[in-house]
Design a protein that fits this description.
Chains A, B, C: This is Glycine transporter domain-containing protein. Chains A, B, C: It is a multi-pass membrane protein. Three copies of one chain form a homotrimer. By secondary structure, chain A is mostly helical. Chain A has one domain. Helix content of chain A is about 75%, strand content about 0%. In chain A, helix 2 crosses helix 4, helix 5 runs antiparallel to helix 8 and helix 6 packs antiparallel against helix 7. The radius of gyration of chain A is 17 Å and the shape is globular. The N and C termini of chain A lie far apart (about 55 Å). Chains B and C meet through helix 2, helix 6 and helix 7 of B and helix 1, helix 2 and helix 4 of C.
Chain lengths: ~200, ~200, ~200
């Protein structure tokens, strides 16, 4: 299944970005594995906890956790290589974002939840891994500041459930959502599209 | 039902304070909606996850999530107005604190949990929204430092379950808890009542 | 039961270290109780939420929560005493680490989970309390930097399930894991054993 292959590629790439963030904070190998795993499978974990969808993906399939830990540890050796090919990682990260969003939608649909919650599940799955990474490594949360990221996840979720609603076959829905979502994210990176920022300065605190 | 109306007022006001905190960190619209929602419904979410009380309130009633997101986005336009009327927000926040505490108690009572856990549920519901807001926006957690806040939630929880224990009718219990809790919180703000602070300096680290 | 007695000693000691961390941040009594409880029973709470193991330990047995709150408040009075005897706390913390790890394993085994997840449950139970403490008090997460800590929990988990797998009686397995894990942790402190650290500096951000 295409989605499974892309999912494994996605968690591997996300785990590597998590490991780099841990390296910038001079964490030890355990910290590297923790941040790598939180980045890669934290979004799905938060989604499942919010929806009460047990067992969690990595509890039922511990091999995913093994993949993210190994990818994290490999990054401690291959760090410079990862940075040199960082353009590939932008592409892999975009694939991961859309795959995670689609899987999030699917889980919520399977549970019979309302369309709003399906879209929320897409965004949580796509975005919370990076958010957890930035909270553990105490960085400014990237997903809340940089180019369209959560919004792409949001639109991918809406597209996915809308197409299913109009009885488009599931395979075609997945492929079209992947293609459109990926293109949108790459365009956002390329053209630096971003959401308006809310700057608020308190005159008197 | 009075409590439902006050609950909607409460989450709207809390969402707005969350949006202002996001604005101080120059977050984009997605960040504003995230922090607004975490502030308003994060306390109930943490409580339900701790108690295993599924589905979560906003998963069963997505309209609450829509309210907090809209309130957050409106704040990006009305920010200055919100600050000008900040005294109203202190009042709305106090109402929200007591309403959240009462609802937290009710959930735990419905699940047949022990009185201690009912009071804990009240405090978690009342306090964790603000705590999540301060953790995501990386501020000093207000609820752990400023005037009586968690303590008011604690006392409201104790009052609520004590009155029910002595067979006071539920409506009267709710109204009295609201009145006393609200007054206590306003008095704490007005007179700057606060819990003793534990200052600990390590001689040799 | 030995394990129960050691568990109560462990959460008391962990609660006290949490209270000291809260004191360094000048938190009020509520903050002290919150950080003390998160440190002492946060690891088990995160484990149970991840595994979907309800009700949580302290919800079913609120007396544990009372112990951690009282221990936290006592520390506000006895802070200097706690520091003077900090060597005892290193010993109690090591006992707590192994007891928490064993209990984490036992919970996962009871749920019929795979060996990998049993070891993960051990590490989460042993380590996440300290991680939560450091996140709430906004400190550099100690467990991701200092001498072998998570690794000791990891090895204790592997030893425990391996011995059970080879039909060693449960009591003996527990005692041997306690003795070896405790010795390993104390040796790590004494000889400053630590995991390799991953230092990654980004040439161009």
């Amino acid at each position: 299944m295409l989605l499974s292959i892309l999912y494994i590629i996605g968690i591997t790439a996300e785990a590597m970005t998590g490991a780099l963030a841990a390296g910038k904070r001079h964490m030890d190998w355990f910290g590297v594995m923790l941040v790598a795993s939180a980045t890669a499978i934290g979004g799905g974990t938060v989604r499942d906890i919010l929806l009460g969808h047990y067992p969690l993906g990595w509890v039922a399939h511990p091999q995913y956790l093994v993949i993210t830990c190994v990818a994290g540890l490999l990054t401690t050796v291959l760090g410079k290589w990862v940075v040199r090919f960082h353009k590939i990682f932008i592409i892999l990260d975009a694939i991961g974002l859309i795959v995670f969003s689609i899987i999030g939608c699917q889980v919520a649909i399977t549970m019979g939840l309302s369309p709003i919650i399906c879209v929320v599940a897409a965004v949580v799955t796509g975005v919370f891994g990076g958010l957890l990474r930035d909270m553990i490594t105490r960085r400014k949360p990237m997903v809340l500041h940089k180019e369209l990221y959560a919004s792409v996840s949001f639109l991918a979720g809406i597209m996915y459930i809308t197409m299913l609603h109009f009885n488009v076959p599931a395979d075609i829905t997945t492929l079209v959502t992947l293609a459109v979502g990926f293109s949108l994210r790459m365009a956002a990176v390329f053209f630096s599209w971003s959401l308006p920022v809310f700057k608020f300065e308190e005159a008197k605190a």
